[in-house]
Amino acid sequence: MLADALLEGLNPEQQEAVQTTEGPLLVLAGAGSGKTRVLTNRVAWLIGVCGIAPEAILAVTFTNKAAGEMKARVEKALGPDARGVWLSTFHSSCVRILRAEIGHLGRSRGFVIYDEDDSLALVREALRRHGQDPKEEARRLRWRIDQWKNAGLLPAQAAERAEDLESEESAEVYATYQRLLAEANALDFGDLLLLTVELFERFPAVLRHYQERWQYVMVDEYQDTNRVQYRLVNQLAAAHRNLCVVGDPNQSIYRWRGADVRNILDFERDFPDAKVVALHRNYRSTQRILSGAGAVVENNPGRPPKRMVTDRGDGDRIVVYAARDDRDEAQFVVRGILDAVRERGHSYGQCAVFYRTNAQSRTIEEELLKYDVPYVVVGGVRFYERAEVKDALSYLRLIVNPADGAAARRIVNRPARGIGKTTLERAEAIAAERGLPLLEAFRAIANEESGRAGTAVRGFVTLLDSLEAEVREALPADAIARVLDRSGYLRALEAEGTPESEARVENLKELLLGAEDFAAANAGEESGRSPLEQFLDQVALVSDLDSAELRDDRVSLMTVHSAKGLEFPIVYVVGLEEGVLPHQASTKDPRAVEEERRLCYVAMTRAMERLALTWAHERRRYGSRSFGTPSRFLAEIPAALVERLGAPDWEAEARDDRPAYDYSYDQSRGSRSGGGSEEGGVTKGMRVRHPIFGYGSVLEVIGSGPGQALRIRFDRAGVKKIIVRYANLELG
DNA sequence: CCTCGGTGATTTTTT
DNA sequence: ATCACCGAGG
Predict the structure, then answer these.
(1) What is the pTM of this model?
(2) Which phi and psi angles does A76 have, rounded to 5°?
């Protein structure tokens, strides 16, 4: 009976994927092919039909949201029987394992999890200890360390592979960074995975325990796994070899974060006996949308993807709108949405706007506001990364783990209590010298110094001590409330009385509410760790106040990356220009362009009924004006699928090898806007390209009309004075 | 120690 | 345009 229910409504391929429980299985799940349903039904099948113990199943996803969704669906099918399944993200799975086993690596189980900010601060500190200036280096190096970790390289291995002096030095700082992390009893995101893999490698008996436990392993979004995740999955599945991975190479969009699409492409090589099931029936989009998206992604080299088919009918053509500028583009989008809602019975919640970069949301938002269209921007600054929220949490972190230097550094002078840079630096020097945690260094100052600084530090240390006594065993919400009150943080914020400070107070209230919810949801769970500790784990690993983002009565705005996994009846993808999508930074590297193309594919395949792609001739970018040409991806969509709106026939020109529009400043054409007017004229700060000197910035505009000259600082050739009329300059 | 103003850079970001 | 960071001055 349950068996029938679990197969009902599934197509033959989906059924096969659900029923294939033994041995390695690769499910190639194209966009909208009902992948989540297959995964959840497969879990339910294993338990409810095959009689496998829930405890023997591990299913990992990338996001909490995906994990939560699957968990809910499995529980719906099976009831409470499903409880024992480990269904969580890579990172939380690793946290659970490490909380139990990290002792083997000589580390304490009470570790805290550092986010990007904390980790950046620590990289700075590491650089300082190497006598280097942390200014410029820090961001880049943090990135590099992250990449090393994604690739599964510990400092020693990174050093081995260093081919130049700079890499060697970086690897040394990496080693110091790891040491500082250990001293702070902290792990960064990358460590969670890397140390788990290391643990399993060095302690086979520990690995064996988990291998035996998990007879069935499933991985979602396998195309986005990085090398460490790959190793982890292979370690865990090695004994039973019941490994099911699900993914779509065409939706691999996190290469820049260390994801390695080879993981999925080589699955059949890794497991020669693997069964492969391809889900190519699409349940989301109309045929035109599907064919258009497929035609784009087919331009990537490699095995051409299997064409997706749908039974949703042909649908409308894909609209391609050539806008005059970004405002016009936004207007087009908003008018279209208003039309869909007023004339065609759609709700705002069924409409979405996707863009390549967050900065592009501004123009769209302005226009939506103008017409009173309700919207929500998904993503952007994350809740738990807001300064005030991090401040409050840092108090808790420091109370739970006095070794947490990042937390101490953060709150020692927040609210302002007269402990400035000088004092902080002295504390850090003491910490480095005597090998103490930062907080202990502050204690030393409090005990040893009598001056103004000493008094201030004493105040801080006393505050912390009394807070610790009050709060350590408290419930998270109480702890936060007390911290905000006793530290004077809330009072200081309220005293400011600015709109910003009010918003911060609001955020803190939201944090309190979130903490209360957490306490309600997690009452009595897990052993050994205080509610406060559990709460801190949770906020470190949850990207946002989870849900409540997509609302039925609001238009959704988000980056294409955030859109992955979602679907909307009506979709606008804006900014389809060279330099935007594909992004400027990606155009030099063919592999990066391929990823941009997949990004375009992901964006298009989110649409169920109506899809519009827009580009703008002219766009405000970094404050100044820039001119754009239609994205190469637009030309890859067969004309028969497209309805072209807006400005003139760009396609004929785009087929040419030249840019679609020639905005050269030569004598025959003058400036684009007809010369003289400010509209298209050259202004200070503008970026231009000279046929001989290359790119440069305009320092000064001298005169006007035919005699107009420019002083330009060229990136390579220095400052030169150029007569516009003769120079054949291009904007760029 | 705090605040203001100049400087530079500026993709995407599940955890 | 905007934001984060740094250095000079209050």
Answers:
(1) 0.85
(2) -65, -40
